[in-house]
Amino acid sequence: xxxxxxxxxxxxxxxxxxxxxxxxxxxxxxxxxxxxxxxxxxxxxxxxxxxxxxxxxxxxxxxxxxxxxxxxxxxxxxxxxxxxxxxxxxxxxxxxxxxxxxxxxxxxxxxxxxxxxxxxxxxxxxxxxxxxxxx
Length: 135
Prior knowledge:
The chain has helices at about 1-60, 70-80, 115-120; strands spanning about 85-90, 95-100. The protein is mainly α and about 140 residues long. Strand 1 and strand 2 (about 95-100) form a beta hairpin. The mean pLDDT is about 90.
């Protein structure tokens, strides 16, 4: 009986010494992979936003005012090509077009972290759940 107990104690100690570092390494690797994935996603989104900015500037030169329907059409087309949701806001944060929700149902975006960051640095992003779609 004492031999069996000693064997179980050694097995438990071996399991702890082996599995604890493995679990820690897995947690750290998972966190790093997630960070790299989110950084890459942000970079792709920024490139797509710059492309849309170029399209908007080409379609409507500074000083011209596109109709809400024209903005919505451009927004829908760009979102379909990119395979993502797209929200277009004006300088004051008012939603001009959105591919997932009627723009009139959306609150002003001025206080959103990604908008504040864009105002400070020229671009911004935030990872959060959408109040309007739940995603």
